[in-house]
């Protein structure tokens, strides 16, 4: 039997992307997101209008999309309630966010220079995509104040251990993406780590959740 329920969240399970972008002072901001979908050499990113990442992308037109593998869940979770934006919205303050200008250090991740864009890549991420912004569209209604940001992939860096030997193809058996499903972290189909985001949103959890 189905029931009609007012679902608060529609995160059905999508890979976590760490988005690198350039702050006004030239440093690299880093933010986890998972409302991303892909079409050819394009991605569409759903990002809150007030996040530092959105402001950086719209100002500079550049980003690196670092695809996080499941073994990076601890580092990703450390970024969960941090923002590079000094002015916190009331919603972010209530959720438990704090301002952090040094996200790489806070997460325990290593920056490495990109080839074509200014924001640094995340060395630990097996797939890193240097991108330029090609367009953006507001998603503004009673439940959302966000932008859909269209980026084009300019250059892809792929670590050897997730490449199909002797090809330019990612080996789907070797690539184990970190998945965010209803604000919880999954890898290889299993719930692998507690989630600060789920806690901040005060979501009901199953007794078996980690
Ligand atoms: C796993 C995970 C996925 C997230 N997905 C999104 C997302 O798709 N879109 C979004 O706007 N925020 C998302 N967030 C929240 C952002 O990370 C948050 O708004 C953060 O403040 C952005 O950092 P910034 O303000 O420094 O850009 C996600 C957070 C986590 C931990």
Mean pLDDT across the residues is 97
Uncertain residue segments: none
Estimate what percentage of residues fall within beta strands: 35-45%
- Strand pairing plus helix content: what structural class? alpha+beta
Q: Report the bound ligands by name, code or SMILES.
A: flavin mononucleotide
Kindly provide the radius of gyration, computed on alpha-carbon positions and rounded to a whole number of angstroms: 17 Å
How would you sum up the major sheet?
A: 7 strands, antiparallel
Number of helical segments?
5
- Total beta strand runs: 15
Helix content: 10-25%
> N- to C-terminal separation?
28 Å
Q: What is the molecular shape? A: globular
Element order: H for helix, E for strand: EEEEEHEHEHEHEEEEEEEH
